[in-house]
Amino acid sequence: MLIMIIEVLLAIMNPGKIIMAISIGLMAGIVEEYLCRGLIFGTLYQLFKRKKTIFGKLIVPILLTNLIFSSEHLLNLSSQSLIITGGQMIQTFGMGILFTCLYIRTQNMIVPMIAHFTLDSVMIFLLPIAQSDQVNPMITFGQAVVVMTIYILFGIKIIKPVFKQKFR
């Protein structure tokens, strides 16, 4: 934990890293959210909205959207290892579910865009720690699953009132 705090403080003192974090955060936050939550989820929701169950009507579009979102990160194999990319894909699947739940709950694309920008910007500051290839693959996988689970649990908490209102 102390190492992470020191890393963040060092990153803050590096103006180049701040610009990079803001640039990547804005690009990912706006472009990926518009594409994934706006276009892909919106289209899948329209295709599945006539299904009779909540699973078919809402859960399937959420899962498919975020499988696509997670798979987009395979492009990172050009600059990082399979272990790191696999862990990132697991985490982004959960993160995407959280962002989709934010979008459904608020009916506002800005909310997941801000959340995505914030998370990505913070991760840029932590990048040297997150990209170390000197890690045990099982630890990386385990950590990714834990992070994914936390994101999904937050997403469930956020979307629960929508289930109570729309799907009684």
TrEMBL record:
It holds the Pfam family Rce1-like. It comes from Fructilactobacillus sanfranciscensis (strain TMW 1.1304) (Lactobacillus sanfranciscensis). The chain crosses the membrane at residues 18-42, 54-70, 82-103, 110-129, 141-159. The lineage of its organism: Bacteria, Bacillati, Bacillota, Bacilli, Lactobacillales. Keywords: Membrane, Transmembrane, Transmembrane helix. This is CAAX prenyl protease 2/Lysostaphin resistance protein A-like domain-containing protein. InterPro entries: CAAX_protease, Rce1/LyrA-like_dom. One of its GO terms (molecular function) is endopeptidase activity. Residues 17-121 form the CAAX prenyl protease 2/Lysostaphin resistance protein A-like domain. Belongs to the UPF0177 family. PANTHER family: CAAX AMINO TERMINAL PROTEASE FAMILY PROTEIN, SLR1288 PROTEIN. GO terms for biological process: CAAX-box protein maturation.
